[in-house]
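=== RUN LOG ===
request id: a7f3
mode: sequence -> structure
chains: 1
length: 67
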Amino acid sequence: MINIFADIPSDLSAEVFETLASSSKVKIERIVSKGHCSPTKGWHQQECHEWVIVLQGAAILTFEDHY
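=== RESULT ===
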């Protein structure tokens, strides 16, 4: 069993990415972030779809059309 809150590094100067499970069609990652954000100019573009759940803290999503 995986404890999603276990073994969080003390140095969070950069986001931490850890693959929990993967296949040819899906990858599940634990991403530990502490105040990180996308650049103030431009948009964060990805090559794949993403589903996110915030387990602790808060997040703000802004879309290009502001909705």
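=== NOTES ===
The chain has a mean pLDDT of 82.
Residues 1-67 form one domain.
=== END ===
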